[in-house]
Automatic annotation (TrEMBL):
Stretches assigned to the Luciferase-like domain: 20-340
InterPro entries reported for this sequence: Luciferase-like_dom, Luciferase-like_sf, SsuD_RutA_monooxygenase
Record's keyword terms, sorted: Flavoprotein, FMN, Monooxygenase, Oxidoreductase
Organism: Rhizorhabdus wittichii (strain DSM 6014 / CCUG 31198 / JCM 15750 / NBRC 105917 / EY 4224 / RW1)
Name of the protein: Luciferase family protein
Domain of life, per lineage: Bacteria
A Pfam family per the record: Bac_luciferase
Keyword Cytoplasm: no
GO MF annotation: an example: oxidoreductase activity, acting on paired donors, with incorporation or reduction of molecular oxygen
This protein's record includes keyword Flavoprotein: yes
Length: 376
């Protein structure tokens, strides 16, 4: 098999100063709540959302990878479609948007990933991308009979993983590889993909995670320590300089955000309060924090409460809450601070994308941050 068709455009390569993505529709979204508007994953909803995002000219449609629920077996946070199968389906119903499979490098072998990603690349005409995560949730590792590695070892494995993946994608000659984590004999990847390399994303927040992203990835995420754009600018500048100076690479620096857009700021605040505080799924988030942060008990109450609120709101993302004008203004400030892209979640994705198209995108276009989109 070879790719005889011309490559399709890949939005992650476009010239928009501020790029936008949608995150987490392969599962039940990113909010931990019992609010009735919470997104319920279905394939039909994914097709509608992907086509809308594609038509609006958004850059990336990004899956989340999760093998075990947070609130105990059967909890909605575990209902996620496997990310390569999902990406193949999304690729088939879209034209321009980049389709990103999130995968655990500690659980998914690079030989399998190279073939699966090449398949999505062929289906999409050159729009496959990978969000590389190392994993941190012990229950997921147990499921595979794998021991959760020390933090530095996870990223050492990730470095080897990327080396092997790159050789499989670019090389036409078979090779052997002897590393600390992988041993390959006669490594080769067929069929040949469309792109020379897929876009790699990584959302590591630690210095080691950032070094990995700076060295290997095209899109990195900052997790802001302070929401003020002046502080965000410092974090973005540091990240970009590290990639440039240490690895000679230019990277896009993105953030993830949860969006609550209403006609008035008060309505947006009330709606956020209702789904996050009044109807928030506290037990699931407590479980998540307990598993994720071994020393959580030692943290001050305020810090835990803040973290819990952010997880319930949308998987710890940055708040974009208010009117279209407020949200567009905040995004513009982040762009001025050097942020290249925002990966968005909503409680109700279909309603959220419709509001974004009507109120926020025209303002971003008027500000020169994005080319005009088809909002019909
Ligand atoms: C936007 C975003 C998306 C993420 N998606 C996933 C995911 O789907 N699965 C997962 O196990 N971890 C995910 N993570 C967690 C990161 O991969 C990473 O483990 C975490 O940010 C901690 O960083 P560190 O590995 O440098 O300590 C995500 C993080 C962010 C900010």
């Amino acid at each position: 098999m070879s790719n005889n068709e011309p490559a399709k455009p890949n939005q992650l390569r476009n010239a928009n100063r501020l790029k936008l993505g949608v995150f987490g529709t392969n599962g039940n979204g990113a909010a931990f709540t019992h609010h009735p508007d919470r997104f319920r994953c279905s394939w039909d909803a994914n097709v509608r959302l992907a086509r809308t995002a594609d038509r609006l000219g958004l850059e990336a449609f990004v899956s989340a990878a999760r093998w075990k629920a947070f609130g105990g077996d059967g909890h909605y946070s575990g209902d996620l479609m496997e990310t390569f199968s999902w990406a193949g389906g999304i690729a088939a119903v879209t034209e321009r948007i980049s389709v990103i499979s999130t995968l655990h490098v500690t659980l998914v072998h690079p030989v399998f990933a190279a073939k699966a990603a090449a398949s999505v690349d062929l289906i999409s005409g050159g729009r496959a991308g990978l969000n590389l995560v190392c994993g941190w949730y012990p229950a997921e590792m147990d499921l595979f009979g794998v021991q959760l590695k020390q933090h530095a070892d996870r990223y050492a494995l990730a470095d080897e993983w990327v080396d092997i993946f790159n050789r499989l994608w670019t090389g036409t000659e078979s090779f052997d590889f002897d590393g600390d984590y992988f041993r390959i004999r006669g490594g080769i990847n067929q069929p040949r993909p469309v792109q020379p390399r897929p876009f790699f994303m990584n959302a590591g927040g630690s210095p080691r995670g950032q070094a990995f992203a700076g060295q290997n990835c095209d899109v990195a995420f900052i997790i802001p320590q302070n929401p003020d754009p002046a502080f965000v600018k410092t974090q973005v500048d540091q990240y970009r300089s590290m990639a440039r100076e240490k690895y000679g690479r230019e990277i896009q620096v993105w953030m993830s955000a949860y969006v609550v857009q209403r006609d008035t700021a008060a309505e947006a605040q009330d709606y956020a309060h209702a789904y996050i505080v009044e109807q928030g799924d506290d037990p699931a988030v407590e479980h998540l924090i307990r598993e994720n942060i071994p020393n959580a008990q030692a943290m001050p109450d305020g810090a835990i409460a803040h973290m819990s609120y952010a997880f319930k709101a949308g998987y710890g993302g940055y708040p974009l809450v208010g009117t279209a004008e407020d949200i567009a203004g905040r995004i513009e400030a982040l762009s001025t601070a050097g942020v290249d892209g925002i990966l968005m979640t909503w409680l109700d994705y279909e309603d959220g994308l419709a509001r974004l198209a009507q109120g926020v995108l025209p303002r971003l276009e008027a500000a020169g941050l994005r080319a005009a989109a088809d909002k019909a």
